[in-house]
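Input record (one chain):
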Amino acid sequence: MPVKYLEDFWAGEVIRTRGRTVDIGDITAFAGLTGDMYPLHTNEEYARGTMFGTRIAHGPLTFSIAIGQVAQHGWYADAIVALLECRSLKALAPVKPGDTISVRATVRDVVTVKPKYGELHVEYDVINQREESVMKFDWIMLAHRRPEES
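The corresponding structure, as predicted from the sequence alone:
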């Protein structure tokens, strides 16, 4: 894994992940894994009668896929120590089976907090195949700082 530090990120830096198609198997597996069997996600007959007209992905599933997409991109390399906070999560549009989502991640702030660590603030914008934002949130992580040379 490439070596990367907090100082290797800058405010305004943007990456875009590859797309990933969400299918009904993802939704069913997530329902089974979490125990969230709400009929909007698990019952097609029920979901047809809703404003969405079909089953939709759980919001936390969309969130989890987005986190995984950025991780698979490799952008953070080994810079991240831990998650500190998730702020302002907003579900903006449904993700339906067959939708392909990707993430545009933008560094909002790079904050030095301690000699060895700092905070990396990144906005995640989850986008579908029509370039519509379906979810946004701010992800704040603790990151390694570059060691001072002796």
